[in-house]
């Protein structure tokens, strides 16, 4: 699963950086399998593809530089669509994917936290 809160490109799957997808439009834009999905505290377009493993990519429909994502509700939504059954999350990773930076770009990260609530 990939959550892209501040994508480069367009939320419709076009632009400079495209999500992994099984389907692409003649323009080269990735085609979402779900659009305007409200889950996890944001609205997303959802793409499905494969990169040696199934990849489900969520691209926000509007850009943001800060915010909160309820990962549990996103996982519950994915489960409701039949992508997987009962699972345990082993780890959560945070990172960036820098695809190009003509002339150089500085990236600043001021804060990242993960709050885990263990269910009874």
Automatic annotation (TrEMBL):
Keywords: Carbohydrate metabolism, Glycosidase, Hydrolase, Polysaccharide degradation. GO terms for biological process: polysaccharide catabolic process. InterPro entries: ConA-like_dom_sf, GH11/12, GH12. The keyword Hydrolase applies. SUPFAM superfamilies: Concanavalin A-like lectins/glucanases. One of its GO terms (molecular function) is cellulase activity. PANTHER family: BLR1656 PROTEIN (PTHR34002), XYLOGLUCAN-SPECIFIC ENDO-BETA-1,4-GLUCANASE A (PTHR34002:SF9). Belongs to the glycosyl hydrolase 12 (cellulase H) family. This is Uncharacterized protein. It comes from Bradyrhizobium elkanii.
């Amino acid at each position: 699963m990939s959550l892209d809160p501040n994508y480069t490109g367009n939320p419709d799957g076009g632009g400079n950086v495209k999500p992994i997808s099984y389907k692409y439009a003649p323009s080269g834009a990735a085609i979402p399998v779900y659009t305007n999905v409200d889950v996890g505290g944001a609205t997303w377009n959802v793409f499905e593809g494969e990169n040696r493993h199934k990849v489900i990519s969520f691209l926000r429909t509007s850009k943001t530089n800060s915010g909160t994502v309820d990962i549990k509700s996103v996982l519950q939504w994915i489960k409701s669509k039949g992508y997987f059954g009962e699972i345990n999350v082993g780890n959560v990773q945070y990172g960036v994917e820098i695809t190009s930076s003509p002339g150089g770009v500085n990236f600043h990260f001021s804060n990242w936290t993960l709050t885990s609530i263990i269910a009874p």
